[in-house]
Amino acid sequence: MKRLFIFPAVAIALSLAACGGSENKNTSTDTEETSATETPATETVPGIENVEVSNTIVVESNDQMKFDKELLRVKAGETVTLTLKNVGTLPKESMGHNLIVLKPGVDVATFAGEATGAADADYIPKTSLSSIAAHTKLLGPGEEDKISFTLEKGVYTFICSFPGHYGVMQGKIVAE
Ligand SMILES: [Cu+2]
Fold it and tell me: Residue span of the signal peptide, if any (predicted)?
């Protein structure tokens, strides 16, 4: 309940700040504690120690909007062969799947938003090609696609870019 009473005070403080008023003697101290420290460059991926290193990967996708693997571990600098299978039966137009490996540091939500607008390009947004390390084509039921690529050391996020899927269809590839 306290929040309800604090709120108007914050609103007043904000409006004073917005006006650039000279009477800012009560400058709030609570803004200072929000200075977050950046996460370290080497991301740790919980559970990756239980995954075998393999550069030959088969991932299944299904009508439940799921990948059957969410953690992959590969040798950096060597060719990775990845096969994506769509083992579902629903039509491609409503339950198509692909697998896109994003470069480290790419904002997943932003990328997925761009992809949603790229229906005519199988949800591979031409405006964001520089964010993509590798990708399969968009698969309908019973289809599969095999791709080869090489990753430098790092942690990569992979997603399905079909609209609405990336939230649950995503995982990590650790190249080491
Ligand atoms: Cu999908």
Answer: 1-20
